[in-house]
Design brief:
Chain B: It comes from Sesamum angolense. The complex is a heterodimer of chains A (399) and B (430). Chain A is α+β, with helices and mostly antiparallel strands and 399 residues long. Chain A contains 14 helices and ten strands. In chain A, the strands form two sheets. Chain A has a five-stranded antiparallel sheet with strand order 1-2-3-5-4, covered by helices on one side. Chain A starts with 8 loop residues before the first helix and ends in a 6-residue tail after the last helix. The two termini of chain B are 34 Å apart. The chains are: A alpha+beta (399), B alpha+beta (430).
């Protein structure tokens, strides 16, 4: 899943394009990711074979105002990516925290280039994880020795701070979850409960232990109230030493940092899934109505054919005509109102109010309205609209 | 102040063949991917289990749900469907219109989360539609964007107007012109006057980029080139993109090829997908006969035989009389299938011929008493023609007025999907 990939797909695509081009390209591209990460790639024909990559990213901070410059250890880590290709420019471009000078001539035109370019495009992940590691290292050993496991508040996206608690045997990461929409809260809650169930089942014994609770976990006692008020509870993961061994460390850190992005992706996917299912269901419901409509049209056409009948009508007396007309309208009424839907009678008995003369469905459209809205006859509904709007149909949101 | 307005808008141009997506303010899109979704449909057509044994039914149901979530788009989808048979390819857009909304929704989801990696709540969105789109389809788009993705604002732009706007920055301010949009799946000739589409004069042609590819495929097959049949469409597409050009005269071009075959005939090399054995084939007359389909459609099919310049002329002649001169003056090309070398020269020459003949005839009819002013014919071509629509969208979305023109989430919640029904570009007419 690309939102869990360290390398940025857009950045990779652009670097590949520059690298593969036979002629030097004029490129000046801005890319935005996760709402607040900003990349700028620049390459010009006059300055070959160099390309410049500038990055501005929200830094992990402990909620305090911090200088926007990158600390030395992070720069050290960045230098570690492909040392002979990437070079850090002394003074970064205005508005960015870091500018890299990439020597494209040194990237070989072979399979190795894929790995190199992927490494370069994951530079943001490198910056972030080096910071998190540094912060964890700097946790006051004094506090730990006295058994005070104070939570560390980390801010990555300004709206979404999270907490890390370092304990002797494990590190606990606590994410307060907040959503703008009510439906999102419901979907996310279901997801967290499911996640907890799966996590505690036998299948995932090696995965970090995951707990979701609607109230703040005891570790967060003493934190300011605005950090502890959420609408979707708290998710916490227990990271033990096994999860941070060797290569796994990088991955774990990155996954933790992007937990919010992942949950958001999941919620949106679920919404899409629900919409698709509803559309399918509605189509199935509307189908009998449409077939009924077709049948009815055919019937009416048959009636309209009789030409002989008209002659008879003309020759008859007025009383007779009136009588016949009555008969005829009754017949039409019968044809119109009796649309055969399998099991509809039972449905009607159970769900629909008794047909009073006023609410008797005259046309198929009216019938459709009754079918769809159940006992909410005052809602306007168009039966030919096959695309469902959940909110639109709910009675309490109707206009 | 909405923080989303501080960020650049996401511009997605969904074409029949390729989707162009990226952020506003850039010159070119981040990604150009084929508009295709590979769906795992192994569970869809299975009969519903008769037995009501709970666990079995549940297992099957959840397997079906999992399969429903298993999909991918773009190049990845093409590669997946080749390597395994559980995936079915679904093309959500046909002839410029969205046919399959489920697939389209999945496509957008992947575009936003896995390609652009942005949260849709953080950005305004600009989508495009063909000029003949029904209002209902615009409503569906709005519903999907607002309900599923919860975007803060949405603007649905009309492709030819964006293509005109793209030309506007490269030269001068000109929002009157005819846009000749030849895409992979649909070809439209759309007159635009002062930024408003003249809806009654839109002409469409059933010949598009895909037909050129099919024609090349047919020619190569008839000549007996040894191209593996399962690969022949792909090869024809690549041949079209790499070697095709527009000639000024077919007969002369045939002579040229016959005199100096070494200079004109190109080699295509590939490997057979099944055995991996290399093969090579010649590319000869296809090089100029492919694009010729637009100028002499009778060589491809007998159903439609009006050449493209004639259609453009008819389109302009059906437009209001006071706009015609301005329309002739600014014929703008857009779409990948107008990228053939010298396409614009040929089009300009043929169009000019038709116009001049008409002027001459009217002069003769008037008996030389009054001379008509010569009509200026100009076919404009620019380097970013291939994604001119996207570029126009990027320009539009980076203006500050864009955010005020958008339909916002609040408006949607207030009025429902009907806000997307009308498009301001058409407002002059209905």
């Amino acid at each position: 899943m690309a939102c869990f990939e360290r390398a940025s797909p857009a950045l990779r695509e652009i670097l590949f394009k520059i690298h593969r081009a036979e002629r030097p390209l004029e490129i000046d591209h801005h890319v935005h990711e996760f709402g607040s990460v900003h990349y700028h790639v620049q390459s010009s024909a006059s300055d070959q074979p160099y390309a410049y990559l500038s990055i501005s990213t929200p830094l992990l901070s402990r909620g305090l105002p911090m200088s926007s410059e990158l600390p030395e250890h992070t720069l050290e880590m960045v230098r570690g990516i492909c040392p002979d290709v990437v070079e850090i420019v002394e003074t970064p471009r205005e508005g960015y925290q870091l500018t890299l000078k990439i020597n494209l001539a040194r990237i070989p035109h072979s399979k190795a280039s894929t790995k190199m370019i992927t490494d370069i495009s994951s530079v943001q992940a490198v910056i972030l994880s080096s910071q998190l590691k540094e912060i964890l290292r700097n946790v006051d050993s004094y506090e730990v020795s006295r058994g005070l496991y104070k939570p560390i508040k980390l801010v990555y996206h300004p709206r979404e701070p999270f907490f890390v608690i370092k304990q002797p045997a494990k590190i606990t990461a606590v994410f307060p979850m907040r959503f703008k929409e009510k439906e999102d809260v419901i979907i996310a809650t279901a997801f967290f409960q499911e996640l907890m169930d799966v996590g505690s089942s036998g299948a995932c014994t090696k995965a970090p232990h995951c707990i979701w609770s609607p109230i703040p976990p005891p570790e967060l006692r003493g934190e300011p109230i605005q950090d502890l008020s959420t609408n979707c509870g708290f998710v916490s993961f227990d990271i033990t030493s096994r999860h941070v061994e060797g290569k796994k460390l990088e991955k774990t850190v990155w996954n933790l940092l992007n937990f919010y992005a992942f949950v958001k992706y999941h919620v949106k996917s679920t919404r899409g899934f629900i919409q698709r299912r509803m559309r399918m269901r509605l189509e199935r419901l509307v189908q009998p109505l449409q077939t009924a409509e077709l049948e009815e049209d055919q019937l009416v056409k048959k009636k309209a054919k009789g030409c002989r009948r008209v002659r008879k009508w003309i020759s008859a007396s007025k009383l007779k005509i009136l009588k016949r007309k009555d008969n005829f309208t009754n017949k039409i009424k019968r044809i119109r109102s009796r649309i055969k839907i399998h099991g509809f009678g039972r449905f009607r008995r159970r769900w629909l109010p008794k047909f009073s003369p006023v609410t008797r469905p005259k046309t198929v459209d009216a019938l459709a309205r009754m079918l769809e809205c159940g006992s909410y006859p005052n809602i306007t509904f168009k039966p030919r609209d096959r695309h469902p709007t959940i909110l639109y149909r709910l009675p309490n949101i109707s206009r | 102040m909405d923080p989303a307005t501080a960020r650049p808008a996401v511009v997605i141009d969904n074409g029949t063949g390729y989707t162009k997506m990226g952020f506003a303010g850039n010159v070119e899109p981040c990604f150009i991917v084929p508009t295709v979704v590979a769906v795992n449909e192994s569970f869809v057509n299975q009969p519903r289990p008769r037995s009501t044994k709970g666990s079995n039914w549940l297992a099957q149901h959840s397997a079906g749900v999992m399969a429903d979530l298993d999909f991918c788009i773009g190049e990845e989808a093409l590669a997946r469907s080749k390597s395994s048979s559980t995936y079915n390819l679904s093309y959500p857009i046909k002839h410029g219109q969205v046919e399959n909304w489920d697939a389209m929704e999945r496509f957008w989801q992947q575009c936003i989360f896995n390609y652009l990696r942005c949260d849709p709540e953080d950005h305004y969105f600009l989508l495009t539609e063909s000029p003949l789109t029904a209002p209902e389809s615009r409503e569906y788009t709005g519903e999907i964007m607002f309900e599923t993705f919860n975007v803060p604002g949405l603007y649905i732009a009309v492709q030819p107007v964006l293509a005109l706007a793209a030309g506007y920055t490269t030269s001068k301010c000109e929002m009157t012109g005819v846009v000749v949009d030849v895409g992979d799946g649909a070809t439209h000739v759309v007159p635009v006057a002062d930024g408003y589409v003249i809806g009654s004069s839109i002409k469409s042609i059933p010949i598009s980029g895909k037909d050129v590819t099919r024609f090349i495929q047919q020619l190569m097959r008839e000549r007996g080139e040894h191209v593996p049949p399962e690969d022949s469409f792909e090869v024809a597409r690549k041949v079209k993109e790499m070697y095709c050009y527009t000639c000024s005269d077919i007969v002369k071009e045939f002579n040229k090829h016959d005199k100096e075959p070494a200079k004109y005939i190109k080699q295509w090399r590939g490997t057979k997908p099944k055995t991996g054995a290399p093969y090579s084939c010649d590319v000869g007359y296809e090089r100029f006969l492919g694009p010729e389909v637009f100028f002499n459609p009778e060589i491809y099919s007998s159903d439609f035989t009006t050449p493209l310049p004639d259609v453009i002329d008819k389109c302009i002649q059906s437009a209001p009389i006071d706009t015609r001169r301005a329309l002739y003056k600014n014929v703008v090309l857009s779409g990948g299938s107008t990228m053939f070398k010298d396409f614009h020269r040929r089009l300009q020459r043929d169009l000019k011929k038709i116009v001049d003949a008409r002027v001459l005839a009217s002069d003769a009819r008037l008996g030389g008493q009054q001379k008509a002013q010569p009509v200026e014919v100009n076919v404009v071509s620019h380097p970013i023609q291939r994604y001119a629509v996207w570029f126009g969208g990027s320009v539009l979305a980076s203006t500050p007025e864009f955010f005020t023109a958008c339909h916002t989430k609040a408006e949607y919640e207030e009025c429902g999907a009907s806000i997307c029904r009308t498009n301001p570009v058409f407002k002059g007419m209905y």
